Amino acid sequence: MSSPHEYNWRRLSVGVIGGGIGGMSVAIALRRAGHEVTIYERNDFAGEVGASVSCAANGTRWLHEWNVDVAKGDPVVLRKLINRDWKTGEPVSTYALDDYEERWGYVYNMFHRQYMHAMLKDSALEEEGEGIRAKLLVHHQCEDIDLVNGMITFTNGKTVHHDLIIGADGIGSAVRKIIGLNPEKRPSESSCLHANVRTEDAVRLGLVDYSKHDALEYWGGQEGKWDKIVLSPCNGGRLLSYYCFFPRAQGDYTNHTWGGEDLSVEELLAPYPELDRHVFGHLSIGKEIQPWRLWVHQPYPYITRSMVCLLGDAGHPMMPHQSQGACMAIEDAAALGILFSKAYFSGDVHETLSIYQEIRLPRATKVQSAAAKAAYNINERIGFSSNTNNKLYSVENEKGKLTIEEMNGYDMYKHVDEVMARRKGRSYKENFKDGIPLDLKLPNGTPVVEVARL
Q: I want to staple 234 with a disulfide (CB 3.0 to 4.6 A). Which of 35, 72, 112, 270 is the partner?
């Protein structure tokens, strides 16, 4: 049986500005939806910097729906979240993920960022698989977009036309400025240095083998302090990726860029004289020490204009403390893939993008806000926000906190159906509100949909 929009559907020429994780994800989603996609990357390669990236169930589900070969990303499947005492290293709060896949249908993956990008790039560009393979053009830096005619001008002098243009060009997005958004932002109160430790080096020196825990591990983050260490294993546990936070007054890296000369181990260790000696030992052999710029952006009033939309950090940059940045970009891509599919796309790009904004902006904005709170209070972090019996537990607003139920219980297809029914003046009779099942409850019995509205 044909879908209601199938005979109005048309194949679009899509231009994606930015070839990172978000850009490759949306290329896959729109390729699967039947469109012709070209990715434009400003550099001489399309890649990612950094070491680790989280992909919880709300992101992993789309990788499977798009038939991405997840094994290529060489992930660690996380089994728990552990918050440790700053000085002793003893666990003070643990959130087990033993039943995670059973509850949510998908595992919680931790990838090496470059491996995840290569995995997505293969799916976007390969000949095999559903849809027309995407094209990738490097050395194409966006200079301007004609918002009437859909014409992109690049700094290399070339111009192209597309029916749909997606700005996936990151936190410093050129596309965002072109559509009239000038971020209200400020430097974070905390700074961050990143370091990598090879597990084999740590084991050889007799240090703790954290790779055996299959866990995201945190030191500190309690009592409103900015000091926090985050350990995320990747590459099957062979690499340990450390994000080291401290007050900006002890070191300001807001204007440093990743990719310069590595910083010294002494600079990495300086803020942490009282840190647990076990993890301190790991940091003492840290390599590739680089600054991670942290800026707090206020929510944007819109993320679409004409035939252009923003995706990922270009549309809702957020602090890293909920480990949801990549998942939000993947969800953005999934929303566009659904909305422009044969089942939903009626041929009107502007109308479809307005639905995209209605669906994505509130959810991403809530995660953005929750990530800022978790920067100084680990109890606001998804997972730990459910450990209400912990003696150190305290959140700003119990009903307004971000929960694992809200993130992983969300059904984007139901959300799309609800919004489209409302726009057509039809009643929506499914047992969902904004993609959340009405019968889904938090561990304390509160309906998740009540929390999600805050």
A: 112
